[in-house]
Amino acid sequence: MRLLFLGRAAALALLLSVSLCPGARAADRVRLAVLPFLSQAPIFIALEEGHFAREGIEIDRVSLQSSYLAIPGLMAGELDAAIPQASAGLFNAIARGGAARYVAPGVVLGAGGCSYAAFYGRGATLAAMADGSARQLSVAADALAFEGFLVDLMRAWPGAGRLSFLHREMPVQAQQAALASGALDLAFTSEPWLTRFDDARLGRVFAGAEELLPEAQYTGLMLSRRLLEERPDLGQRFTRAFAAAVRQYNEGKTARNLDIVARGTRLPADQLLRACWPFIPADGVVRTEGLMRFQAWLHAKRAIDRILPASDLVAAPRP
User: Fold this and answer.
1) pTM of the full predicted structure?
2) CA-wise closest residue to 227 among 145, 114, 315, 297
3) How far, in Å, CA of 151 to CA of 139, rounded?
4) Each residue of 65-77: pLDDT tens digit?
5) Predicted confidence (pLDDT) per residue in 76-93, tens digit
6) 3-state SS assignment for residue 220
7) Rounded CA gap, 115 and 276, in Å?
8) What domains does the chain contain, in order, with CATH numbers?
9) Which of 94, 112, 200, 219 could pair with 106 as two cysteines, CB 3.0-4.6 Å apart?
10) Do residues 59 and 47 lie in contact, with contact meaning Cβ atoms separated by under 8 Å?
């Protein structure tokens, strides 16, 4: 009986100590899209290293297989945060009243000394082929996506005016066999597929995305209206946790980072060690110039309603 009394007294004392502690509060929940891609590495690090937890945030993970699938949820407020790739769907969603905005850069093309996203081919590079000769190349790329924009930038490459490109939509899993058989000349893809293609000795990078559009933002962290306007304090804490994770990511392929990213992407550590890790700036500055150029191209293709000013793309949680 005495032991039972002591147990209840101890429990009551613990409850009182928590309730009376001025800093104690329940963690705020954030619905975060989590994808198994190398571009999402800071998210894996923030989760594993407790950066979100230290900011009083509990993450509700929403597992997706494409960043495009995050856009409707972000705009409607069903998701609080995600790192989507720029697309016509994203720009149109904002133009039609979607409230999500960029708050920090994700993958930025270049500055890493290697190609994270690229056109891969079996032979020569774009620079070698840009000799004024007429050639037609089949390319696995979506004609109205970011890679379609890059294809047009290849056409504008000095000396490449007589190159023509035949678009073929093909899942990345089929590209390796098509390249190997010669049924495909070029494939646009990103890591880890570039490393897999190298491992299979299929060829080489034909043109890196960073060569065609240097310093352009490829992905970015976006927050919903809830974190920007309704709970800006929570948005600020989330962004701080993300920034801490980006700083750790930029330490490079340390043993700890390799372990975390291997588990997050479900990729072998030795493959990640050989892969090109994308450049993710730690300065928190959204790169809008490339986004504006991409929008202008999409508008010319009649793929978006209108060109949004940079101020409609970027925001910060209200102080």
Assistant:
1) 0.89
2) 315
3) 9
4) 889 999 999 999 9
5) 999 999 999 999 999 999
6) strand
7) 6
8) 27-108+216-312 (3.40.190.10), 117-211 (3.40.190.10)
9) 219
10) yes
